[in-house]
Amino acid sequence: MGFMEAVMTGLAPDGGLLIPESVPSIAGRIDDFKDLSFVNLAKQVLPFYIADISSEKISQLVDSAYSSFDYPEIVSLVPVDDVHILELFHGPTLAFKDIALQLLGRVFEYILNDRKGYLNLLAATSGDTGSAAIAGVKGLSNIDIFVMYPKGRISKLQELQMTTVTEPNVHCLAVEGSFDDCQNIMKNLFGDLDFKEQYHLGAVNSVNWARVLAQVVYYGFASLQGQNKAPRSFVIPTGNFGNIFAGFLAKQMGFPIDKLIISTNENDILARFFNTGQYSRGAVHFTSSPAMDIQVPSNFERFLYYSMDGDTKRLRAFIGEFMQSGMAIMDDYQSKDILATSIEDRETFSTINRIYAKNGYIADPHTAVGLAAAEQFKMIGNKICLATAHPSKFPEVVDKAIGRKTATHKRLIGLENLKSRTVTIKAKERVVADYIRKFGHQ
């Protein structure tokens, strides 16, 4: 299918995830790209994967998407000790998800206006996806968005960023369960093809290929910064594997990237796989980095496809075994390019404290998970740690770790005084489906 159809489809009809037919090479274009701004690099990279939207229109969508960012350069690289921190949180909801979801919102609007159609977007969030997705589509007349989040398991400010949005096309659902419960409901409803077709279900989670594609750009941009020609290694705090998969694609395209270092919190399913080849689900641990409290990372299937040399039969067997028994083993797994570790919660707190005391830099708990991992690995080139959220979104954790009030941002001041709208529901597909039937576009 074409790019626009992939965007509208979200999860593939067979329940799998969409990937490009081939990964384009930009190896011969590095010199053309190295001096481009983030926005101009996006305008060059996206057309490699998009054949059914003109380059001129892509350029307009990119300009519109990033016009709402606080920082003119969209992303920033900040040196801290021997690491450069890639700040990705300068968008309207102060999270890295804005980079993809501001663009995705514009793409949805363009396609729907062109086709005179509508969508009911269903999202599962462990914290930041929900508010970023809402910010991308709030107020649009041809989209309703339904965001599920685990009740009591995200930060108060993350919740308020969603529930204080008053546009009638926004619906927040507090699910009595974990993020994995929310994600499972979402996948099962997308697997009900009659329901998906009848209610025009669309996806904003990173199962949507466009989400991953937009994130490829900042890996390419950061890898080209500075005069040092040594390849960059990226440290990625991750839960659902979408962020690191974007880095994997950027490396495959030919951007100068050496290692990708996965940093998980105590929900260490990915760290265990990359160190042992065993992919086994455990109980969800609720930590101070809640966006990573995930035991079934949905984007991992995409990576496995490439690791298994495109053997779809083997991939289906592996995922089927995991879904049935909670464990699958890849005996022959080896990777020189991806390293992995897990960080305990107490180490997250101590890292926030130590980085601030030594450098005056305030890191949110997810970024701290990455910074703690960066200290464990020695690289030949530069290490770049992704900063995925502004620390002001987690004031309880950050202020406690530092010992005084430090985490504030003008965008979040006064949210607690606004009217809040949410509905608490059971973690059941039927309940969510009935809610969409009652309040969705038809």
Class of the domain at 76-95 and 210-402 in CATH? Alpha Beta
- CATH topology name of the domain at 76-95 and 210-402, in short, is Rossmann fold
Binned strand content:
15-25%
**Largest sheet report:** 6 strands, mixed
Shape: globular
User: Low-confidence spans: pLDDT under 50, at least 5 residues?
Assistant: none
Strand order across the largest sheet: 1-2-12-7-8-11
Question: How many helix segments?
Answer: 18
Number of strands: 13
Could you say which structural class the secondary elements and strand pairing correspond to? alpha/beta
Q: Alpha-carbon distance between the termini?
A: 25 Å
Overall mean pLDDT:
94
Radius of gyration: 20 Å
Helix content: 40-55%
Task: Provide the CATH architecture of the domain at 76-95 and 210-402.
Answer: 3-Layer(aba) Sandwich
How does this model look, in words?
The protein has a domain at 76-95 and 210-402: Rossmann fold (3-Layer(aba) Sandwich), CATH 3.40.50. The strands form three sheets. A six-stranded mixed beta sheet has the order 1-2-12-7-8-11, with helices on both faces. Strands 6-3-4-5-13 form a five-stranded parallel beta sheet, sandwiched between helices. A two-stranded antiparallel ribbon has the order 9-10. With 442 residues, it is α/β, with parallel strands linked by helices. The protein contains 18 helices and 13 strands. β7 (232-237), α11 (242-253) and β8 (257-264) form a beta-alpha-beta unit. The mean pLDDT is 94. It is globular, with a radius of gyration of 20 Å.
